[in-house]
């Protein structure tokens, strides 16, 4: 383990995982992990600096260029990934408790979030059975070709705080399955659960140099993205940061995968009883405090049903207990940081200024004097041109947009800079699917909603570039070579 110590209720991780080994960092700099419930420091994690990035990239470079990892067969690499799966599973409950402490997610949400990593890791163990690393093809009747897919090289993987273990698995597992070596840079929040995943990576005993984990700030992250020893960047986070990373990679003609923001729409048809829709709608909109890129935050409803929907939302949201995330009855804890609460409150003020109707929430819950709590908020009579309908808030913040017919609903859903997720709810599943096919977004639920983990996940437009998960996720870490064979 990373020399974990606890003093005065503050846990310290004072080493970095570089090349699969726990090593002393280049400086004594630490990242403070602050509880969103108590507003106190609960952990300190060694902060990687540029010399640590150099060391991790050098280890990954040597492992890729001269080590055994990319030269093992896909089936041989799968055995290491099976160990990673098993080591991760051993730590799930610890990771869940750590995640609750780090970001304020209720216990049930935390456990669900960590468990999302398991099908991702399991899929990586068997993905070589579904991805053709080599295939024979005919050419002109006289010659043959062999298509060979080879690992792309050293990967810089950068993940957010809102699901660090599953987010790490979604990048690390397919990259390793492809034969790449990886330097993982997690966000500054959510770090204690991620350090437990780093411990699982170390315990899986990959060959030297294959995997590094570097908690770090923005400066070290940008240094990693631009490092000459890196061959590909995979990033999940805000669209603003994604633009910056995409530009840096573009300057270097460096392959990049970007999974970015969303402002996903749920279209409710006029024929479906709302009691069938509300449980999914509320969970998909404010679950994990809406701190989910694929959350359904724009609710499109027939104009004649808007008031019915509002009353339904009012009753459903009232059932979600707000409070201490360690309480099993709590369904909404605090948001991750004070800056995030302030951002949400700024959007509440903006919604009022824009002329939308505040119908639920908009403030801070009574009786919760400590912690970064904010009420689940719903605006109605929203025009899709309003900023509260166009910009990602990343909080428990829903907008209700009325429409007059299905064509208008589709047009509203598509009138967004984003295209990550969405859903259509109708008593006629075939009609719902036809509507779903018209929405320009990376995934659409038909009378359901979820987050894909082993299917291709990603977005249209400013929601990103490329896909993660399933065979498509592994192909993103492979280069294609054609061998022309005479005779």
From TrEMBL:
Belongs to the aldehyde dehydrogenase family. This is Aldehyde dehydrogenase. The active site is at residue 259. Residues 22-482 form the Aldehyde dehydrogenase domain. It comes from Conexibacter stalactiti. It comes from the Bacteria. The lineage of its organism: Bacteria, Bacillati, Actinomycetota, Thermoleophilia, Solirubrobacterales. Keywords: Oxidoreductase. InterPro entries: Ald_DH/histidinol_DH, Ald_DH_C, Ald_DH_CS_GLU, Ald_DH_N, Aldehyde_DH_dom. The keyword Nucleotide-binding does not apply. PROSITE patterns: ALDEHYDE_DEHYDR_GLU (PS00687).
């Amino acid at each position: 383990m990373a020399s974990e110590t606890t003093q005065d209720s503050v846990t310290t991780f004072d080493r970095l995982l570089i090349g699969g080994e726990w090593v002393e960092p280049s400086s004594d700099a630490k990242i403070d992990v602050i509880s969103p419930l108590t507003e106190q420091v609960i952990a300190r994690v060694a902060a990687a600096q540029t010399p640590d990035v150099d060391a991790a990239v050098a280890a990954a470079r040597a492992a890729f260029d001269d080590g055994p990892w990319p030269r093992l067969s896909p089936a041989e690499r799968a055995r290491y990934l099976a160990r990673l799966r098993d080591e991760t599973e051993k730590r799930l409950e610890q990771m869940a408790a750590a995640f609750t402490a780090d970001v304020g997610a209720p216990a049930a949400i935390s456990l669900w979030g960590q468990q999302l990593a398991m099908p991702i890791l399991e899929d990586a163990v068997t993905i070589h059975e579904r991805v053709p690393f080599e295939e024979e093809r005919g050419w002109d009747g006289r010659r043959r070709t062999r298509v060979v897919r080879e690992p792309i090289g050293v990967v810089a993987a950068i993940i957010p705080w809102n699901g660090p273990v599953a987010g790490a698995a979604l990048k690390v597992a397919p990259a390793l399955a492809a034969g790449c070596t990886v330097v993982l840079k997690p966000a500054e929040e959510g770090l204690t659960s991620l350090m437990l995943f780093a411990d699982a990576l170390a315990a899986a005993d990959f060959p030297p140099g294959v995997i590094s984990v570097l908690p770090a700030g923005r400066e070290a992250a940008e240094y990693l993205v631009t490092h000459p020893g890196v061959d590909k960047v995979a990033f999940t986070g805000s669209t603003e940061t994604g633009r910056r990373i995409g530009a840096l990679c573009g300057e270097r003609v460096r392959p990049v995968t970007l999974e970015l923001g969303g402002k996903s729409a749920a279209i409710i048809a006029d024929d479906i009883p709302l009691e069938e829709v509300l449980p999914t709608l509320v969970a998909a909109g404010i679950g994990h405090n809406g701190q989910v890129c694929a959350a359904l935050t724009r609710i499109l409803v027939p104009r004649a049903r808007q008031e019915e929907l509002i009353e339904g939302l009012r009753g459903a949201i009232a059932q979600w207990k707000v409070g201490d995330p360690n309480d099993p009855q709590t369904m909404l804890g605090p948001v991750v940081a004070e800056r995030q609460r302030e951002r949400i409150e700024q959007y509440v003020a903006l919604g009022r200024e824009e002329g939308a109707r505040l119908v639920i929430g908009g403030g801070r819950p009574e009786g919760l004097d400590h912690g970064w709590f904010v009420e689940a908020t719903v605006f109605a009579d929203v025009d899709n041109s309003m900023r509260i309908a166009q910009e990602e808030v990343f909080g428990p913040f829903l907008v209700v947009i009325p429409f007059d017919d299905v064509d208008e609903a589709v047009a509203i859903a598509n009138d967004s800079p984003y295209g990550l997720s969405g859903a259509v709810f109708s008593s006629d599943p075939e009609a719902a699917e036809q509507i779903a096919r018209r929405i320009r977004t990376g995934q659409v639920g038909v009378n359901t909603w979820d987050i894909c983990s082993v299917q291709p996940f990603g977005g249209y437009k400013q929601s990103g570039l490329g896909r993660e998960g399933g065979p498509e996720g592994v192909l993103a870490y492979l280069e294609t070579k054609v061998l022309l064979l005479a005779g």
